[in-house]
Write a structure and sequence with these properties.
six-stranded antiparallel barrel, alpha+beta, Thrombin, subunit H
Length: 276
């Protein structure tokens, strides 16, 4: 038994030596041994798999981080866009107000008067009397004071109390405005007939064309010269010796929220010896 055990032990030792010698023998690759080759073939795929898993984990982490950054950036850009749109809206409103004030200031230069803003608090467009109620603030209005918008003539003050004024529109049936055709200076009287404005007392031989601008003439003692009234939309032969001239108002009365009171200059007294 002992001899058999010793034989197996010698056989195991010799086998181990042969394996070591085989591992120490060079492989086909230069400078490599069979042991290194076996280790490379077994360990390298495992290492690659582990590296791939780690890289994938890093990629997922980076992707999640990048997505969160994009979401935050998108929210910030959206808030900035909203602020920009609000600012553009505010600037558009400011531009409208500046255009309206700029247009109104032209009336002030033409009439050498001062303009005061008044808010429209009530409008009556349905009854026979077409009127507005204005809030004038601390600076009260005066009877017969002209009222304009950025587009043209609105009417005149017919009643005033502290802080408020009642305005007769030019479309009121009882209103009458001294007017003229700007192009030819031909004068007449504008008044309302139904839903229309007409320019009366214009002779049939007068030069009046569709599209002509009609402005105040200043001869009625209420409205200064040059305020836009409207444009001629039709010219026909009327009864007797006058043309039937229909005028489209320059002002859209249904859109009025603010108007301007025009302070008039006091006319100088007539020189001595001149009869009125």
């Amino acid at each position: 038994m002992k001899e058999r055990r010793v034989g197996w032990l010698l056989f195991a030792v010799l086998g181990g030596l042969l394996v070591l010698l085989a591992f120490q023998a060079p492989s086909r690759g230069p400078g490599d041994t069979y042991l290194e080759t076996i280790v490379l073939r077994v360990v390298a795929p495992i290492t690659h798999s582990v590296a791939a898993v780690a890289s994938s984990a890093r990629g997922v982490g980076e992707s999640v981080s990048t997505r969160e950054d994009l979401v935050k950036e998108n929210r910030a850009l959206r808030r900035r866009l909203e602020r920009t749109e609000l600012e553009l809206m505010r600037l558009a409103l400011v531009e409208i107000e500046l255009d309206r004030l700029g247009s109104a200031l032209e009336y002030s230069r033409a009439s050498e008067g001062r303009l005061r803003v008044a808010d429209v608090v009530y409008a009556d467009y349905s009854s026979w009397l077409r009127t507005l109620i204005l809030y004038t603030g601390d600076d009260d209005a005066e009877p017969d004071q002209p009222v304009v918008s950025d587009r043209g003539l609105v009417g005149r003050v017919i009643a005033a109390v502290p802080g408020y004024a009642k305005v007769q529109l030019i479309t009121d049936r009882a209103a009458a405005i001294g007017a003229m055709v700007r192009r030819t200076r031909r004068q007449g009287v504008v008044h309302s007939v139904g839903e229309r404005l007409v320019l009366d007392y214009v002779p049939q031989q007068a030069d009046v064309k569709v599209g002509d601008e009609v402005v105040t003439s200043g001869i009625d003692g209420i409205y200064p010269r040059g305020l836009p009234v409207g444009r001629v939309v039709s010219v026909d032969e009327g009864q007797e010796l006058f043309l039937d001239v229909v005028v489209d108002p320059a002002v859209d009365f249904g859109m009025l929220d603010q108007v301007y009171l025009l302070d008039r200059r006091t006319l100088p007294e007539l020189p001595a010896g001149v009869e009125e």
